[in-house]
Amino acid sequence: MEYTKDYFDQVTDRTGTHCAKYDSMGMFFPGDNLVPMWIADMEFRCPQELIEAVRKRTECGIYGYPELSGTAYHHFVVDWQRERNGIEYAEDDVFFGESALTGVKLAIHALAKEGEEVLMFLPTYGYFHKYVVNMGRVPVMPHLVHDENGYSIDFDALDATLAEHDIKLLIFCSPFNPVGRVWTEEELTKLITICQKHGVPIVSDEVHSDFIMPGHTFIPTASVARKLGYDQNVITTSSISKTFNCAGINAGYYIIHGEEMKAKIAASATFFDASEMLGGFSYLALEQVYTENGSKYVDALCSYVYDNYRYLCDRLAALPFADEIVVSDMQGTYLAWIQFKNYGEAERLTYEFCKHGVALEDDEEFFEDEGHFIRFNLAAPRSVIEQAVERTEACLKALYSAA
């Protein structure tokens, strides 16, 4: 199937479908009739091939235990990583889990003991912090550098931090959620070289790696580590859920090349009873999306999201107080990270936006304490984006008129 703009323009009513984005929104956002631009869950229909395959499968009428081993499906991951990201893995390097976070959780448990330190950069995805703290490990959270050139890593500071602390694991995000950075090979080389110097393993969450905007190239962390002879100390995590909007079908995976690392992670998987067995619909989904047609879907999707990003930037740039708004360069992901400076007295930003009918996550969700930010989900039909932007503008006009 060819995927055109019309496919992504479709608006689907998801209320009452047991989805978090709509049916759990009231747990976090006060108000009625909010446009939900919060959780990283798209408003686009899954690839048509997946929709048809699921429909056909449900006609059986019996949804029993799935296959007891997923090894027959590892080649879909291997093929996708080779074709999309140019990296070669062996099939026995691949392990399935509920989500991309399965590998992160297992890495924390396997590589750091209670009371030991785990490093992640701020702003950070909240679940990284949650897992570290809930398992009794200690988070060390240096900030990314944020200046007129965007976001970057202070490698000298990282080197000093690893020398000062006994860091047992670095949790890395590539592309980086929420700021949208796609790391260059030079940056990854510096990062891995420093980790190698201090003997710090890396778990690299690459669940957004299919969302790469024009002018940028995604480079797997493991591919650079392989050149440096450090890939046996890198765990890569990903999933089909983010790319193909099927988080309700649990189909995550993690990739490990080193045998010693595999043994450590396997011990933690046994502790958590983290079976590699996925649900039957998960295997079905893998077969349908990690294909040539799935690749066409991704390419068309990224083009559509990038157009939404340009639309958002243009609308915000036209506001009279545009100098007070900084939209980060969204090189990857489908999430715009926006800073607001020097506005008037206000409640937490999330609640201010709710007053104007739009649900947006603010900086508190990402442990960001150096400014006022919101994350804006751009994976939605243009008509939905337009409505959300109008409400966002109304909120900003109210905030800045009070300044």
TrEMBL record:
Q: Which residues form the Aminotransferase class I/classII large domain?
A: 72-391
Q: Which UniProt keywords apply?
A: Lyase, Pyridoxal phosphate
Classify the source by domain of life: Bacteria
Q: Which residues form the signal peptide?
A: none
What cofactor requirement does the entry state?
pyridoxal 5'-phosphate
For molecular function, the Gene Ontology terms on record are: cysteine-S-conjugate beta-lyase activity; pyridoxal phosphate binding
Q: Which InterPro entries match?
A: Aminotransferase_I/II_large, Class-II_PLP-Dep_Aminotrans, PyrdxlP-dep_Trfase, PyrdxlP-dep_Trfase_major, PyrdxlP-dep_Trfase_small
What EC numbers are recorded for this enzyme?
4.4.1.13
What protein family does this chain belong to? Belongs to the class-II pyridoxal-phosphate-dependent aminotransferase family. MalY/PatB cystathionine beta-lyase subfamily.
Name of the protein in question: cysteine-S-conjugate beta-lyase
